[in-house]
Amino acid sequence: MLNRIYIVVGIFAIVVLAGAFLVPRFITWGDYRDRMEVLASGVLGADVTIRGDISFSLLPSPRLAFTDVVVGDAESPAATVGAVEAEFVLMDFLRDIYNVTALSLERPVVNLTIDENGLLSSGVDLSGAGAGVALGHAGIANGSLRLEDLRSAETYVLDRVDGDLRLSSLSGPFQFQGAGNYGETRYDLRFNSAAVDGDGNTRVSSFLREALGAYSLTLDGTLSPGAAPRFAGTMAYRQAPPQADAADDIRGDLLLESEVTINTDRVVLSGYTLNPDQNRAGMRLTGAASIRLGVRPSFDAVVSGGVFSLPPRDASEVAAEQPYEFVRLLLEIPAPPLPPIEGRLGIDLAEVGLRGFALREVRVDATTDGATWTVEQAVARLPGETEMRFSGTASNDGGVAGFVGDVSVVSRRLEALSQVWKRPVENNPLFNMQGSLTGRLMLAGDAFGLSNGRLTLDGQEHGLELRIGFGAEPRLDTVLTLGQLDTLRTQALEALVPDVTGDANFAISFPDGSFSITAGRVDVMGLPAQDLVAEAQWSPSAVRFSRLAASDWGGVMLNTTARISGTLAQPWVTGSGDLGVADPDAPGLGVIYEMAGIPFGWQQAIARALPFSLQFILSDVDGGEGQVLTAGGDVGAARLDLRAEMAGGLPALAVEDLRLVGSLEAQDSAAALSQFGWDSVAFADGEGSLLASLFAEGSGTDGFEGRVALSQGSQSISYAGGLRLSGSGEIAGEGTLEVLLDDGSAIATLAGVGGSSLPGLEATAALQFEGLRSLALDGISGVAGDTGFGGRIAMQRSGQMPSFSGAIDADGLELAGLAGALFGESAFIGAVGAVWPEGPLAASDIARPSRGDITITAPSISLGGRTVSGETTFNYVWGPESVSIKGLGAAVGGGSLDLTVDLCCAGPLTDRTVSGQATVSGVDLGAIAPGLLAQGLSGRLDGGVQFEGSGASLADVMRGMTGEGNFAVADFAAEGLAGEVFPAISAFEDVLNTDADALETLISLALARGPFTADQAQGAFTIAGGTVRLANLIIEGTGARLAGSLNLMLDQLDLDGRFVLTPRDFNDPNGLVQSDTARIVAQIAGTLLTPEVTVDLAEMVASIQVRANELEVDRLEALRLEDEARQRAAAEERNRLIEERRRREEALRMEELRQLEEEMDRIDLPPELSTPQQPEPAAPSGPLNLGFQPGVNQPIGNDVNQPIQLFPSQ
């Protein structure tokens, strides 16, 4: 029974289930459309219209499907769904609870609207007041969410939305996870909502991520739904870095975190933290932002932070192989993000590290209109108390940054600022120097430029234009207009500019470029350049100067064009232009010498060619290799033409074949020779133009063959032979030298003996030389004047001074020519009619540039056709200060003469010093004494003298001559001073009665009987003030002595002397001739050439007369003395007798007195009664005059004790 019941129930159940499956399929559910629309409207709070088909099945679970659903007004629906299929929980569904377990929405479109007042309108009721509905799972396919903002007339569409939605009711909680497209970008979406609380708020969280993971946005907070919805919570925006190809390029995510408040009017980030690279936690930025929504959406944001720096470069990269960091920064500057709305941005950072340098105290104020940024001010500080400012616009052109605006950089300490791009140096000229740079900055595409730039350096303003290409065609173009820069400012400018020559980064950064520099004055390579113009373009293959000019660069004028290619080791240069130099000491010339490696000897030669003004062309050979240099122009007083054919071009000049053809021609030969230091060369007196020519061909390695000649009219100096060029620039050779000169002084000048005079000559010699170090002339053969000569001469350079040596054998020498070689021809000007010439000794006012010692031999020396010496040998010696004839040895007058004469000292002063010494041995006085002097004196002379005198001429020298000497004359004889004169005088009788004139006559006759002779006469003399003084000369002769002094005034050769002849070894028995009073005086006057001797006999005559009187007085005096002796004896006898008498009387008186005193004592009488004492008579005080006094020496006539005047004349 029970089984039957089960069967019945089972059958019923099966029928019911079968009906539940089958019956709904036979029901026309469209008839229930209104019911379903009302039901859905109640749930959504808005009218729902189902315009498509409806289907329903109950089992196995309730499933409802319908299409073309419109929510809200059909004209402006709040939402539309293409097809809906929903599954419900069966039991809840039967209880009228629509717990949707699965929902599929195809092509749903939700329309949201923000009206003019900022109120959100969706057309549905989300407050939960509708009939209950629960959704366990909803699938959305190809949905769309449309938000229309009526304030700005903008519509924002999120389409192609696919995902899953879960909700308990339309008022939440619900969850959505899926994806959708905004524009062309696909996003992953996630949104969660909690149930609405009592205040109508709900907790929501959302996540949005770009489908490829480029960036994401997370929101978490409280949502207050309604017409004016509001969200308050936190947000996190994360942006992934670009894909890195290398490990060092790996960067962390950019992360923006902030408190956020969102409503229909504004989005506010009240305090955000921005970390551009999460791998670098210390690099954080903070700030706040406000985004206004509505009719004119805009934003206002501020960014602040501490240290913000770019990531470091790859540690393995080689810095020298990379472009400048600034150029790399230009390549890496990102395009500024441009929000589609206008707004304002303020940035305030403590420091921004840009790898190579850092910006401090960065402040940026900018606004945007949605298309470009307008930078009101961008301020930052750099090292050196430097402030950088920028104002302008920034743009984003297809992802490429663009900037246009005004920039200024003002620095108070440029030396610190320059260390950003240059290594620090000692003694930096930028120390404490101020400067600034202003201009119009432009960054567009791959070009960076500065226009209308004004560079101020130490208060001086200059112009600067700059363009940098840093993209596919990197290059640098600059235009620099400088004012007047002194040395310090130029050094400062150089210290400010990067080292473009020594820095490999420059060529990498700018393989191509150009520059144009103009300056009123600027230092170039340490020298001032006036009116400088430098315009050039460079590329990896060459540098082309379209113009390089300066009116004055260290004394050099330059105006050229050039092309430089090749390498630094072997540059290939072509060009043309003008080159002018006026001063041989021009500093610019020295710099050119150093750059070109010109040897010092060549520099000296070039210096003598100045001033010059040349035009040159350096070009490649047509149709072949090599180069040709042609140059021409004025070289001082001459005209230069030069052609150099270089087989290997200028770089191979030293090793490849070279042909040189050149000439130097001058109409003014004196000026041209003076220019080359040959002031005294005889060419200056020739006729016609002066021509120097050169022809040489060969190579630097194998040597050259050629000819060098200097000629004028019929005169010439030429060399023909080989030439070799050493690595140091020294020229050596071996060949033949030919000389034909009207005045041989030219050779003396070339040898460095300027001022010396030589006759004309014609000679040849084999010449071998090695630069200026050595020279050898062998096999010299020639004629000088009428005299033949030969020999050899060599030159060796010791240090900077050439030294000549050699020997010359001459057929004869002329004394006048010898003097000319010593003093110069000009020294003998004015010699006619004068004792000494007044011509200048200073023929040259500069020191001689050489020294030498030439041995000269000759069989004789002549003067005016008369031989004055025999075999002669001497050394002709010169040096920088002096020229000398040394060790002259000659046979003279049966003896020998040794002579040395020096002429010193060369220099700017007009005075010269003549000094020397001479020694004679056994020379006959007659051979060297002038005519009249030789007639009065004879003997053989030995002696020596040294002398020195200074003056502008030989006459001045003689006026100031000084010196000393001594001599000895053997067999000395002086005519007219016979020593036998004194015995003759002794024999004179009755002198007192002989007239004085008669006595002088007698003495003169005695002197003329013969000469004064002596075995030897010797003495010493001095020379002072141009006077020769022979003082206290004493000659001990036969029977007489000759003594005296003699002065010779060298100026006019005047003589002034006085000699005294006195007896020697003579005793006059008659006493008339006394050695101390017998004096015969000889006065010497006149000149050395015409002496005048006067014998004064007056003193001798007076002497013998006085002596005769003295002899008579002596006789009378003897008589007087005998008488006085007799009288003296008588007086002595009288005095003796008187003294004896006096003594006897005194003895008697004393005896009487004694007796009286005894008597008085006896009688004792008073003293007053005693006999008065008589006074004692005075004794005589002197002898008695007892005899007769003779009448001599009495005061009668002449005074007492006065000599008798025997000779009234005395």
Automatic annotation (TrEMBL):
Coiled-coil portions: 1121-1150
Keywords noted in UniProt: Coiled coil, Membrane, Transmembrane, Transmembrane helix
GO biological process terms, semicolon-separated: regulation of protein targeting to membrane
KW Membrane (keyword) present: yes
Keyword Membrane on entry: yes
Comp. bias regions, Polar residues: 1191-1210
Domain AsmA intervals: 6-118
InterPro entries named among the record's database cross-references: AsmA, AsmA-related
Species of origin: Devosia lucknowensis
Pfam families according to UniProt: AsmA
Descriptive protein name: AsmA-like C-terminal region
Segments crossing the lipid bilayer: 6-27
Residue segments, region Disordered: 1157-1210
GO cellular component, one term: plasma membrane
